[in-house]
Design brief:
The chain contains two helices and seven strands. It is globular, with a radius of gyration of 18 Å. Strand 4 and strand 5 form a beta hairpin. It has a five-stranded antiparallel sheet with strand order 2-4-5-6-3. Strands 1-7 form a two-stranded parallel ribbon. By secondary structure, the chain is α+β, with helices and mostly antiparallel strands. The longest helix is centred in the C-terminal third of the chain and has 28 residues. The chain has a single domain, classed as Hotdog Thioesterase (Thiol Ester Dehydrase, Chain A), CATH 3.10.129.10. The model has no long low-confidence stretch (mean pLDDT 95). The protein is 28% helix and 34% strand.
């Protein structure tokens, strides 16, 4: 399977933050931002794999500064690294004050997507070729994040095996 340049997966969208998108602090709802993150991440993963994908994990979300109503947010997603059937996607969110053009990095996020066939079975994906300094930095550090995800997944399996499925009122 031929490798693909990171830029081939690059996906970008912008959202104008309206007052109805904010919480009682006047800042963008984190959950609503996550909806956009998952969406743009899936677009990047599908561009890379040219297959349907499913979200396997949202590894980290770092909210670096608040996003206020009236501003714009630009979400940029790229596939940074692949394993056999999985793809690490990095999403960078930059807020822009539309009146002043001031741009600020406000959120970063790593997600993992898995390519699937029409039956939902995981299928192989192409490798990644980073070109820019930022792409190379993300690529170089990706395997460490992958191993961390594998460890966390194992810990999660152990943890959830100890949780009850009983209804709260039946305990």
């Amino acid at each position: 399977m031929e490798e693909k340049k990171v830029n081939e997966s690059r996906s970008v969208t912008s959202v104008h933050v309206m007052p109805s998108d904010t919480n009682n602090h006047g800042t963008f709802f984190g959950g609503k931002l996550m909806m956009y993150v998952d969406n743009i991440g899936a677009v990047a993963a599908m561009r890379h794999a040219r297959q349907m994908v499913v979200t396997a994990s949202i590894d980290s979300v770092d909210f670096l500064c608040p996003i206020r109503a009236g501003s714009s947010v630009c979400l940029e997603a790229i596939v940074t690294w692949t394993h056999h059937t999985s793809m690490e996607v990095f999403v960078k969110i930059i807020t822009e004050e539309l009146k002043t053009a001031k741009r600020t990095l406000c959120t970063t996020c790593f997600l993992t997507f898995v390519a699937v066939d029409e039956n939902g079975k995981a299928i192989p994906v192409p490798g990644v070729v980073p070109e820019s300094d930022e792409e190379k930095m993300l690529y170089k550090s990706a395997e460490k994040r992958y191993l961390h995800r594998q460890n966390r997944r194992s810990e999660t399996r152990n943890f959830v095996s100890r949780l009850t499925l009983k209804k709260p009122w039946d305990r």
